[in-house]
Amino acid sequence: MRYRLTVFCLAIILLTLAVDAQKKPSFRENPGLQAQQAKEPVRQVYEEMFTRGRYELVNQAFAPNCIVHFGGRTIGLQEAVAEGKGWRSAAPDLVMAIEQINVSGEMVNVTWAGRGTHTGQGHGLKPTGRRFQMTSSSRFHVVNGKIVEVWNEEYRPELFRQLGVSKTTAFMFFTTERLLSALGDVLPDRIYSSLLQ
């Protein structure tokens, strides 16, 4: 009797595991599912955060220790979010759209377009009232549905050119940024982030 009960329990366990395996498609069996999972946090960055200003979604899209590269500079997630919020404040009508997206394993490559009008305060620049439109590209390393690292082309020289920011103002902006970056090593994150806005 005990033997039959053990065999019966093992059969139930094996049947349950087989049914669960059928319900959950594996990424190896369905690479399209993996690509969709990798695209989702990237879509949130452009459509929800940049365009709609929904920065409360940052923890859904990014791993907490995410590193962000812009050309030759590397910053942490808090600093990158503060930078994004600053530009959204400077251009309240900012729209960032994905023009092309492709996935290769854990890497998501995006060509994006951004446009807006510099009518607000942000990053210490006085509003120019000028419209800007630019296209660039970014690469995202996505692991388990979260962005862990980002590589962006440096966009600010072109943005400053379109906004008519003088070379002196741009020089002061970049010098202040380098100073704040040096202070970032000694200041708590929340104070550092507030200085960038």
Characterise the protein shown here:
It is globular and about 85 Å long. A six-stranded mixed beta sheet has the order 2-1-6-5-4-3. With 197 residues, the chain is of the alpha+beta class. It is built from seven helices and six strands, in the order αααββαββββααα. The longest helix is centred in the first third of the chain and has 22 residues, at 2-23. It has one domain (31-196): Nuclear Transport Factor 2, Chain: A (Roll). The chain has helices at 2-23, 31-50, 58-61, 77-90, 156-163, 167-184, 189-196, and strands at 62-70, 73-76, 95-104, 107-117, 131-143, 146-152. A hairpin with a 2-residue loop joins β1 and β2 (73-76).
| Known CATH architecture | Roll
Question: What's the mean pLDDT score?
Answer: 82
Structural class, from helix and strand content?
A: alpha+beta
Number of domain units: 1
Strand content: 25-35%
Strand/helix succession: HHHEEHEEEEHHH
CATH class placement: Alpha Beta
Please list the strands of the largest sheet in the order they lie side by side: 2-1-6-5-4-3
Q: Could you say what the CATH topology is called?
A: Nuclear Transport Factor 2, Chain: A
Share of residues in helices? 40-55%
- Structural shape: globular
Compute the number of strand runs: 6
Distance between the termini: 73 Å
Instruction: Tally the helices.
Output: 7
Radius of gyration: 23 Å
Uncertain spans, ≥5 residues at pLDDT below 50? 24-28
